[in-house]
Design a protein that fits this description.
homodimer; about 190 residues; mainly alpha; Arc Repressor Mutant, subunit A; two-stranded antiparallel ribbon; 4 strands; about 60% helix; globular; DNA-binding
Chain lengths: ~190, ~190
DNA sequence: AAAAATAGTTAATATTATTAACTATTTAAG
DNA sequence: CTTAAATAGTTAATAATATTAACTATTTTT
């Protein structure tokens, strides 16, 4: 059980407990939209025998400049597993599994870093490059269809919004966690 | 293997294969942000012994008006499992499991619909209502922090963008699927 | 009255992910 | 310069999250 300084009376009218809020609507919509997009992605990528996560790895190795990861930091060398784990926000062990699938399918290859023998760097094979290129029109078709009807200024506002939120989440982690402390166990 | 009318030469320069595009940046950022938010949510909700999915069910049963589901359609009666499955975009079997956990914890209760005996409707218990109310300040704290620094017009543009995308995904499913047909097996 | 659709459940299983323990290597500290 | 700490990757065991298929019960449609 929990206790916090209370904003609402829990015994009040059970129906309209929660207020309309544009901010909460935004956050819940982002969740919902991402979910839907993932489902659509899964449908497409399973036609080529991949999951959305595996697909995202290919996009990283294709140096897709639209990935938030590449906007956050420059990468001159080929990526390694731990960087993918960072970007996808999952464990390294999980990345190992995903990579093994892609290696088996001959879509990527792995080579040892000469300067640091702990590291293994990843690269698309020709087959992997072809796959990325061949699926690109379908991907961009959906994306452009979704975003059409908005002008450039609106799209920029939108992207700035997303990136500002991300920065807050990543750089001001402490601040976010301080909100959680509003939850105190009894 | 796949074949499509080719946009890029797969043998060309391996580095800058993919162009910068604000539209693709938006979609990839939405993914990323949703991911981060989910991780944060998982951290908070696991303190109260719930997963993000279970939490979302509670938000539905609290009739949170900010949920996209309630913006899409009015609901006068209490929700049933299949409606939750619709909203969360998962199978009914999955919802059964999630609901059983919440029933065990005494956060929700289930009653049979008098008019249609196939249906079981769901309701928060007092304990469930208290939990929702007690966690609300923490949730809203994070949400308001994330969205501060943008004015109301920008927030509205942003929300309209998200909702327009969702509508396209839901109502114009055929159109989306037609893009996938750009992928043709050899 | 029969057939189809809807709601929910169960069982078996797939997937996706995690943690913990381990090796190998590099970097930092005393 | 040698020990301790940090980093990269892997493996094994397991948790969580989800799915499909088959089933019952009920309602709706034809």
């Amino acid at each position: 059980m929990l206790y916090i300084a209370r904003q609402f009376d829990p015994l009040s009218n059970e129906k309209e407990m929660i207020e309309s809020s544009i901010e909460e609507s935004i956050v819940l919509s982002i969740f919902d939209l991402s979910n839907q997009l993932k489902k659509i992605g899964d449908d497409v990528y399973q036609k080529v025998g991949l999951t959305t996560q595996q697909w995202l790895i290919l996009l990283h190795l294709a140096n897709n400049p639209n990935l938030p990861f590449f906007k956050r930091e420059e990468h001159s060398k080929d990526l390694m597993a731990s960087e993918l784990a960072d970007s996808l926000n999952v464990s390294r062990a999980n990345i190992t599994n995903l990579i093994n699938v892609l290696l088996d399918k001959g879509l990527i290859r792995q080579y040892e870093d000469k300067d640091d023998r702990r590291k293994k760097r990843l690269k698309l094979t020709k087959k992997g490059i072809t796959l990325v290129n061949n699926t690109q029109p379908s991907r961009l078709g959906v994306i452009n269809y979704l975003t059409e009807g908005f002008n450039d200024a609106e799209k920029k506002t939108f992207l700035r919004f997303l990136e500002t939120c991300m920065n807050k989440l990543i750089n001001e982690d402490d601040k976010i966690k301080s909100f959680h402390k509003l939850l105190v166990d009894i």
